[in-house]
Fold each of these.
Amino acid sequence: SDRFLHFFHKKSKQQHFDVVQYNTLKEDLAKATEALRRMHHSLFADASRGIQ
């Protein structure tokens, strides 16, 4: 909600919390997690077909 975002950004500034860097790291984590999920899925799909 707008109230939460206002509060969050206000407190972030008070605590010298870099919201942009936080968002970037969060996006990078999501991308890495998705890449690992795809690799895991691919490995098990290959194993079920008998490919090593």
Amino acid sequence: MNAPETQLFLGAYWPARKEPLEACASRLVSFFDELVTLDARLTRWFGLASSRNKALEKPAHVLSFDYWVDQLSHSRTMSDMPREPIEELGFSPGLWNGEAGGLSVGLSVCCGSFSRHAANNVLIRFSQGSGCLASVTTMRAVLRLVARVWEPRWAGVMSEQAIGARDFDARRPFVDWIVYIGRCWLAEEPVLESPASVEGLEAGTLIVVQDEPPHPSNPDDVANIRRVEDALDLKVVW
């Protein structure tokens, strides 16, 4: 019997970091410059709209710095009275890859926030049944890219089911399938039992718990996750 499919989600998180619009635009260009090469479903993007047809009329020029300057300037949260940008909340653009059903991918970014109440993040939601996008090779490459370009405190590829079933807190690493942990938590690379694997990156450590996405109802998957959690002991929030 095949293992039940999980709906995958990539989240990267970091606390207050004030950045100007141009810096966020540069990060976005660098990010998409490589992201579009990792899988065919990540090559084209569209702005968000009230319907699928309207969104398809808004192609996103993700490799254009000028495009991102314009999009970021229109993505600010606005105050009610007077109507003006709330600068401390940064910029929050969102995109969709234009695909339907199991091929759909949604992406949002919050960059440049320096509020104590609103952290920065990159969020990518993959539809259930995402095929080769759910391969460990592809997801590890996406997570490496996110870690390098966005410099988060931590980032992970996890399932929506796991987030709902366990104690998720964006202020500390959440171990599920693949997790990147910055040096503020792990000064040295840990030694982990198989099937987990460890890869050192410039500013942190990338850990793959197992080759296939774990499922919360599979006791072997849960045991693999717990072994990694126990070895890392990541209870402290930022």
Amino acid sequence: MILDPSRVDSEEFMAYKTEQEQFWAGDFGLEYQQRCQGERLISANVALFTRILGASVKLKSVLELGCNIGNNLVALNRIDCELQLSAYEINETAAAKARALNIADISCDTVLNKLPTERKHDLTFTKGVLIHIHPEQLDAVYDNLVALSNRYVMVCEYYNPTPVTVNYRGNQERLF
């Protein structure tokens, strides 16, 4: 377990299971927010999600694991403003930005934890998140995706049948 003394939740240190979690919850996660925003990205996601949702039965609720600042949630809201949107995000600053959009219920937590399953969603998904999770930890995220869904699970990720570590902006073991 890795403790980050700069993060305090309920007077306890935020504990991370992996170095990758600490990395994304910290300064690099803040830099990522600046790089990955803008209307062009949202518009591309509107096009992608329109095709995907068009092939499904009408959805009422959607949960994203790893929402960052909420770009995917904005795209989904533009497609259907009646969707009940929820998300988890490990970086508190990104979670606060997503909350400020006032379109989704945002929780700050790691998707490696077993997440509460009282509320199920028509669709659970990740987009561009799993590539940053160590391959040995992927099952925990898959378990959450399935446990929190009552209909569909969507994984929008790069794929390689054999996980490899890729140098990511000068960092090792941060992209798989």
